[in-house]
Amino acid sequence: MNITIYDVAREAGVSMATVSRVVNGNPNVKPVTRKKVLEVIDRLGYRPNAVARGLASKKTTTVGVIIPDISNIFYAELARGIEDIATMYKYNIILSNSDQNAEKEIHLIHTMLGKQVDGLVFMGGQISQEHIEEFEHSSVPVVLASAIEPTGKIPSVNIDYRQAAADAVAMLTDAGHTDIAFVASPLKDTINQHVLSGYYEALEAAGIEKKDELVIEGDYTYDSGIEAWSRLQELSSPPTAVFVNNDEMAVGVIHGAQDNGVHIPDELEVISFDSSRLALMVRPQLTSVVQPLYDIGAVAMRLLTKYMNKEKVETPIVVLPHHIEKRGSTK
C-alpha cells in the first residue's frame, strides 16, 4: 500500500500543510505536534515524494546526469565524482545513458526537465546547435562535463585537449620518432577534433610531414584498437610509435602488436589519452595523458550547485590541468 501525505495527516489528526511543514523542516510547528507527526511517519513508513515536494518548494534536490555509457570506465570515473559532490550537497542523482545518440540526448533532456530536476550535468561527444538551443532555453542550469560546445556560452569543465595531445606527441618526437601514428576516437566528436589538432601541431613543430595513412579512426573500443594496429602494420613503413585517443583502444593496439611479435616498448612505443584504471591493468602499463576524470565530474557538479543556489560564479568555463604519467609502454 502506498502511504500518502493524506494518510499521515489523518492518522496524526493534523492538516496536510502541517505534515508538509514537518517534512520540509519548517520551524513553525509546535514541538509536540512535530513529534506526533514524525512518530506517525515512522510507524506508517511514509516516504515523501520528491517531485511533489518540489512542486511546492520549487526544488526537488534532484540533478539529472546524461552520460554516453556508464559501463565505459572513463565515464564511470566521471560519474563517481559527480555523485560524491551531489551527495555532499544533499542532491540526489537521476542518471541516464544516451549511447552517444543525438536524438536520444535531446529526448533525455526533455525527460529530465519533465521530472522537475534542479539542474543538469551533460556529457556527450558532439554538441550540435540543437543541443545549444536546448541548453540555453532550459528552465534549470546546465553544466557540461568533458564536453565542449563551440560558442562558450554553456558552463563546462574540461582539460586543454589540444595542448595535452601536443604534449604527448612531442614526447615521442623528442625521443626521435618520425613515424608516429594516431589512433583517433570518432572525429565527428568535438573533443577528438581538438586532439587531432594537437597531434598535427606537434608534428609540425618537429618538422615532421603529416601522413594521412598514419591516422586511423576507431570507435573507442578495444576491438577497434586491434583493427587499427592490423592496418598500421601493413604499411610499407609501419609506425615506431602510436598515440591513441583512449585507454581501451590503446590496450587493443598493444595486444594486436604483441600478437604479431612486436615488443613494447623496444620496437613500438605507445601513449594513450585518459589514464583511467584500465591504463594500470595492461602489461606493460600505459604511459598516458592524465585527465583528472574524477575531478572533472566533481568540479562540474560543484559548479552546478553554485548556479542552482544562485552563488557567484567567477569562471563558468573551467580548464583543469593535465600531465603525462610515464609508465612501461614508453622507454
UniProtKB/TrEMBL annotation:
Keywords: Activator, DNA-binding, Repressor, Transcription, Transcription regulation
Pfam families: LacI, Peripla_BP_3
InterPro entries from the UniProt entry: CcpA, HTH_LacI, LacI/GalR-like_sensor, Lambda_DNA-bd_dom_sf, Peripla_BP_I
GO molecular function, one term: transcription cis-regulatory region binding
Gene3D superfamilies with a match to the protein in the record: 3.40.50.2300, lambda repressor-like DNA-binding domains
Domain HTH lacI-type, first and last residues per copy: 3-57
UniProt keyword annotation of Repressor present: yes
Functional note: Global transcriptional regulator of carbon catabolite repression (CCR) and carbon catabolite activation (CCA), which ensures optimal energy usage under diverse conditions.
Alphabetical list of PANTHER family matching this protein: ARABINOSE METABOLISM TRANSCRIPTIONAL REPRESSOR, LACI-RELATED TRANSCRIPTIONAL REPRESSOR
NCBIfam families linked to this entry: ccpA
Protein name: Catabolite control protein A
